[in-house]
Design brief:
alpha/beta; two-stranded antiparallel sheet; globular
Length: 280
Amino acid sequence: MTTTDRVTPGIVLVGGMRCGSTSLFRHLGGHPDVHESSRKETHFFDQHYGRGWGWYEEQLGRPVPGAVVFEATPSYLADGEAVERLAADLPDAHLVVSLRDPVDRAWSHYWMFREREHESLDPAEAFEAELAGEPATGGRHRSYLRGGRYGPQLRRLYDLYPREQVHPLLFERYRSEPDLVVEELVASLGLADAPGLTAPGRVNAYQRFRWVGLRRWANRRLPKPLTDLVGRVNRVDAPYPEPEPTLRTRLEEHFVESSLEAAELTGLDLATAWPSRRGA
């Protein structure tokens, strides 16, 4: 297969993690001229690059002629090597970036890891462990803080891609006005109007397990379809515990510089949109 025969994404949602990427993927993927990748998070450019383009095409699926291929792997944004590979292999792609208040994003990321038993430390200890470069359970990399340092990440994108190919948006605004935000995104991407696009509703909300022991037993003993079924019954939506005020203040201070840079680069009103920046 020649390079010109390749299936290549025209749109990549590169981040950030815990910033509504699943909802955005389903929402924009409902556009009649957009082909969603068969697998949402291919992780090709950060984890599976060595498998080659043929493997990547399998994850993307076969679009109908004329459709724009769309994939979403929100971990790309914080991975410099992945972004460089994207720029080398997909220089004409449009990159969508969803930005969430970095304090809320870090808190959400921590509790996702904690509930999935990837994290055993209390929040303050876990954030300190990340700064010290210590891995979480099973050797997983902590990126609660790194994932929200948007300024340097965005600067890297703008260094590698023309500004008109980078499309930043605010998670908070998408959550309150999803259809309007996607309508604006469709226009900025140069896609045809699609008035019927509607938000899929909230997905990937934080959930806790009713019975952790049941989850462990199912993961060990049952085939995946039954494990997934048990998981759906065993989960319940739940609010995050609130961070201690002193910890929240420390997190706000940690992200000040990168958030100021993100506001400068994107022109977005982060001071109004993000609780951690209000009154700054």
